[in-house]
Design a protein that fits this description.
The structure is a single chain. Helices cover 52% and strands 17% of the residues. The two termini are 51 Å apart. The chain folds into 2 domains: 3-175, no CATH class; 186-434, Alpha-Beta Plaits (2-Layer Sandwich). The protein has 13 helices and 11 strands. The chain has helices at 3-11, 28-37, 40-53, 64-72, 74-96, 101-144, 147-175, 199-218, 248-252, 314-318, 342-369, 408-411, 416-446, and strands at residues 186-192, 222-230, 236-244, 257-263, 277-287, 301-306, 322-327, 332-336, 385-390, 395-398, 403-406. By secondary structure, it is of the alpha+beta class. The strands form 2 sheets. The chain has an 8-stranded mixed beta sheet. A 3-stranded antiparallel beta sheet has the order 6-7-8, covered by helices on one side. Belongs to the prokaryotic/mitochondrial release factor family.
Length: 447
């Protein structure tokens, strides 16, 4: 805090007092209740909020200005206080009450879950207390006609207000349900659509694949090419890559779907007409499992070998280096002819097959747990049209969140512009998760 403000606070010692809520000593009754009902306290408090918010017309999206309004609601404040009290009581329990090893593990787990929230909540409380002190200071300075100090106090108040907004955002992120697959690596596949004058689709597919390769470099991820089937005029029929790094699936999970292009073709047969053509290509994003997540029984596989096509010299056309894997129980088929070695192609094909089986497990799990859920970012189905690239208007439109970007060439570079859109998609998904979080639990209270 500014030195002048510190002097003023020292002279007005009545502003130093901070109201400290009394923390009741830990009791065995609380410990028993917490252990027997797991997250009972957490759920009951959450439902209490939903009861009070049920008749409120909250906006469908908690954009920046709505977020603070949401947290300022009395029911939400009560919920925050109860969570903080639970954390404080758990802290006391772990220090002073002896419990068996199983109970200790449960308490430690819950304590660790609440720790980040408690730290942010404490910062917010301290910042809001400082705001109250500065408001009192401004009133006193106004009476004393101390304009210079009053201006300093107002500047300090504004700075702390900005800090509180950041803390509310952190608190929001801390309470959003996390997906357990977010940290996984991915296998990204692109496939050209089939339309009259398919050149436009194939060229667009190559541009999109290059965009994701550039984005991987922008995010410092490892981009490993698994399959690449080129087309005429510099286009691309199909390609697949393994992308590994920090939170890859989290950032790319909403890129899966149908991407549409509208443009006047520059090359190929379609370019002779000089009119706007519409084409599509599809993106599939598969979270890459660990070995322990998906095990493929060799007895369930049918392996076919054949001669590869495309570039690669005489070796490609004279040896059966390409591999086709068929998973008999599910009917999934994977081909790979990227490498000159049949063994390497088999390894790559098996990796892609395991990723597709893993995707089926994830979708089944989500259908069971979230049968009624539809995020604002869409149903997340791979067949959903998610984005349009209009070259004649130099505009990219994401239909799920009505987000538009100008300058297509800059967007296709796969750097800051794409990252900004992905961050908006993640934010929108978080907002929908909070809405679902409240709605589902309110329904449970009514039942």
């Amino acid at each position: 805090m500014n030195r002048h403000l510190c002097v003023w606070l020292f002279r007005h010692s009545f502003l130093h007092g901070h109201h400290q809520g009394h923390i009741h000593p830990p009791s065995r009754q609380f410990t028993q209740v917490h252990l027997n009902t797991r997250l009972w306290v957490f759920r009951q408090n959450r439902n209490h909020i939903l009861h009070h918010l049920a008749n409120k017309n909250w906006p469908k999206r908690y954009c920046h200005q709505h977020t603070k309004m949401f947290w300022k609601h009395k029911a939400v404040q009560k919920y925050m206080e109860d969570l903080n009290k639970e954390y404080q009581t758990l802290d006391q329990c772990l220090q002073h009450i002896s419990v068996n090893q199983g109970d200790q593990r449960s308490l430690n787990q819950r304590h660790a879950e609440l720790a980040p929230f408690a730290a942010i909540y404490q910062e917010i409380q301290e910042a809001e207390q400082a705001i109250e002190e500065l408001e009192s200071m401004c009133e006193s300075l106004n009476e004393q006609n101390e304009k210079q100090l009053q201006e300093l106090a107002l500047e300090e108040k504004q700075t702390i207000g900005q800090k509180i907004n950041v803390l509310y955002s952190k608190l929001f992120q801390n309470l959003v349900p996390k997906e357990k697959y977010d940290k996984n690596d991915v296998i990204l596949e692109v496939t050209s659509g089939r339309t009259t004058g398919g050149d436009i689709c194939q060229q667009f597919t190559r541009e999109i694949f290059d965009m994701y390769q550039n984005y991987s470099g922008y995010k410092h991820w490892k981009f490993e090419l698994l399959n690449y089937t080129p087309a005429d005029y510099g286009g691309l029929h199909h390609a697949a890559a393994r992308i590994s790094g920090d939170n890859v699936y989290k950032h790319l999970k909403y890129e899966g779907g149908i991407h549409r292009v509208q443009r006047i073709p520059e090359v190929g047969l379609s370019s002779r007409m000089q009119r706007i053509h519409t084409g599509t290509m599809s993106v599939i994003v598969l979270p890459q499992p660990d070995e322990v997540d998906v095990k493929v029984d060799p007895k369930d596989l049918r392996i076919d070998t054949f001669r590869a096509k495309g570039a690669g010299g005489q070796h490609v056309n004279t040896t059966d280096s390409a591999v086709r894997l068929v998973h008999v129980p599910t009917g999934l088929v994977v081909e790979c002819q990227q490498e000159r070695s049949q063994i390497k192609n088999k390894e790559i094909a098996l990796r892609v097959l395991r990723a597709r089986l893993y995707q089926q497990i994830i979708e089944k799990d989500k259908c069971q747990q979230q049968s009624a859920r539809k995020l604002q970012v869409g149903t997340r189905a791979q067949s959903e049209r998610i984005r349009t690239y209009n070259f004649t208007q130099d505009r990219v439109t994401d239909h799920r969140i009505a987000y538009e970007v100008r300058d297509i060439k800059k967007f296709l570079c796969g750097e800051k512009c794409l990252d900004q859109l992905i961050q908006r998609l993640l934010q929108s998904a978080d907002e929908e998760a909070i809405i679902e979080f409240l709605d589902e639990n309110f329904k449970s209270t009514k039942c």
